[in-house]
TrEMBL record:
A Pfam cross-reference name: PAS_8
InterPro entries in the record: Biofilm_reg_signaling, GGDEF_dom, Nucleotide_cyclase, PAC, PAS, PAS-assoc_C, PAS-like_dom_sf, PAS_4
Record has Transferase as a keyword: yes
Domain of life from the UniProt record: Bacteria
PANTHER family: BIOFILM ARCHITECTURE MAINTENANCE PROTEIN MBAA, DIGUANYLATE CYCLASE DGCP
Name of this chain's protein: Diguanylate cyclase
Listed NCBIfam families: GGDEF, sensory_box
Entry GO MF terms: diguanylate cyclase activity
Keyword DNA damage part of the UniProt annotation: no
Domain GGDEF as annotated: residue spans: 398-531
UniProt entry keywords in alphabetical sequence: Nucleotidyltransferase, Transferase
Annotated source species: Azospirillum brasilense
Enzyme class: transferase
Length: 533
């Protein structure tokens, strides 16, 4: 054996050391071709054993341009899995040398997907808390364990006229009369000794040294170590008196959001406002005494609401479907808080009709996945769905076939009848294919007059039968033109899935080769790929 052969054997033997590592490892050429990848990397990217060897690193780049709104740390990146999914990894790259002195790279990949997801969740929680804090209509302030103000919201500044910069890092004794400050400090001390929550009435300082009698509700909170973190307080103005029952009723009646109150012990509705009654489609008096659970469309959604209430005591802006009295449904943003009213434990619920917004979002998602001319899947969506079917076929060792269809002499149609008629012809071709294909077959437009179909569970011979039916059906369609009707023909190339390491791109390429053979042999025919084409 030559010295280069000995070096190659030594190099492969050294690479096998990485086979037992739990972290993904690969060796690449200086141009990015993968020479070796250990089992952990194959498992991380969901490739069969040996499936990464020979691939270019560029093939592992995600196809879409969407990235989570988190700053990328050095060495962190996304890799595309064989089934179309992606994983976040921390990448370390070091130089190494091949058996003949050529430059190579040793790359180590550590899965950090859970870490990135946790970062995103934490960021969203912090953002939500910050938004809620600043948009609350009631004045709120925060003190640390030493009694110093650390923050307040916009409503506090509007209510007191005090700028938050004038109170932050100061105690009550620095911002109000010592007598009033002592009264607040005494309440804080008792709260920190006994923990929990307290409500009391006392004067609150205003800009210019004035005060106003207010009701304060304070509660302690813990830091990450479980120790006293500080106190959060909410101010309620008492100078104008408490609102009467009539004023509360008027406020609820003018609310554009549906409001209901139901008893927690038996679930019976004891109050609804007019908007809630309108959304359900019944009179208010007809809703009183009914079970709140009767208006959930989906039992599983109701169970999610109940579980959230049991675990957290509230539900905020959960998407839930409700049932109207006529049996129709509508989507809502559903918020529930638990409370005690006149000694009765109740659930306070707000429902905001979300149907139009949700329908618009679904329509936008559908538009993003569809070809605007024909209404079938565009190239990007087709490839995503087809890769999912490919992964399933590999997982369960099932057959799958792909066929590519091209309209014969389509340029002549555009030149003879105009592009508007050509567009009509493409729409009719898409509709004609859908009329023959099964419901779970995937039809997409690759571009121009070229269409592609994935047939899950179908062998090449079974796909030939389907493709022949499609070809005949299209050739019989009468296409309306400016000077009368005309007919068109199509050519189709077929390729079956080739083993557990086959890819969608390779299958489509083989089907393209069969399509070219069909065109060379005279068009208007179906050809199945054979080796050597």
């Amino acid at each position: 054996m030559s010295s280069s052969g000995d070096a190659e054997e030594t190099r492969v033997a050294l690479w096998r050391v990485f086979d037992t590592l739990p972290t993904g490892v690969c060796v690449t050429t200086d141009t990015g071709t993968i020479l070796y990848a250990n089992p952990a990397l194959h498992g991380l990217l969901r490739y069969a054993s040996g499936g990464l060897t020979g691939l270019d690193l560029a093939a592992l780049e995600p196809e879409d341009a969407f990235f989570p709104a988190l700053p990328d740390a050095p060495g962190e990146r996304r890799l595309r899995c064989q089934d179309g999914g992606t994983v976040w990894v921390a990448e370390s790259v070091g130089p190494t040398t091949g058996p003949l002195g050529e430059r190579q790279s040793l790359r180590v990949y550590t899965d950090i997907s859970h870490h990135r997801q946790a970062q995103a969740a934490l960021r969203d929680q912090l953002l939500m808390k910050e938004v809620l804090f600043e948009t609350l209509p009631v004045p709120v302030f925060v003190k640390n364990a030493a009694g110093e103000y650390t923050d307040c919201n916009d409503a506090f500044e509007r209510y007191t006229g005090l700028d938050r910069r004038s109170i932050v890092a100061k105690t009550a004794f620095a911002v109000m009369d010592p007598r009033i400050a002592k009264a607040h400090a005494d309440q804080d001390h008792e709260l920190t000794v006994n923990w929990g929550q307290r409500s009391y009435e006392e004067a609150v300082p205003f800009v210019g040294g004035t005060t106003r009698l207010s009701s304060l509700t304070k509660a302690v909170f813990c830091d990450s170590a479980g120790n006293l973190g500080g106190i959060v307080g909410v101010i309620h103005d008492l100078t104008e008196g408490l609102p009467s029952e009539e004023r509360l009723q008027a406020i609820l009646e003018q609310s554009p959001i549906g409001v209901s109150v139901s008893r927690r012990d038996d679930g019976k509705i004891i109050f609804v406002n007019t908007r809630f009654a309108e959304l359900i489609g019944l009179k208010r008096e007809d809703l009183i005494g009914r079970q709140a659970r009767d208006y959930y469309l989906d039992r599983h959604q109701r169970e999610r609401v109940i579980d959230r209430l049991r675990s957290y005591g509230s539900v905020t802006n959960m998407e839930v479907q409700f049932r109207r009295a006529d049996g129709s449904s509508f989507w809502t943003l559903f918020t529930v808080n638990q409370a005690v009213i006149q000694g009765v434990q109740v659930n306070l619920a707000w429902i905001y009709d979300y149907t139009d917004r949700r329908n618009m979002e679904e329509a936008l998602r559908d538009m993003a996945s569809r070809d605007p001319l024909t209404g079938i899947y565009n190239r990007r969506s087709f490839m995503e769905l087809a890769r999912s079917q490919l992964a399933r076929a590999h997982r369960f060792s099932e057959p799958m076939s792909v066929f590519v269809l091209d309209v014969d002499h389509f340029k002549r149609i555009n030149d003879s009848y105009g592009h508007a008629t050509g567009d009509d012809a493409l729409r009719m071709v898409a509709g004609g294919c859908q009329a023959i294909l099964r419901e779970y077959d995937i039809l997409g437009r690759l571009g121009g007059e070229e269409f592609v179909v994935v047939l899950p569970g179908a062998t090449a011979e079974e796909s030939r039968v389907v493709a022949e039916r499609v070809r005949r059906h299209l050739s019989r369609m009468a296409i309306p033109g400016p000077e009368g009707r005309f007919h068109l023909t199509s050519s189709i190339g077929i390729s079956a899935l080739d083993g557990s390491y086959d890819t969608l791109e390779k299958a489509i390429h083989r089907a393209d080769l069969a399509l070219y053979r069909a065109k060379r042999e005279g068009r208007n025919r179906v050809v199945v790929y054979e080796p050597g084409m």
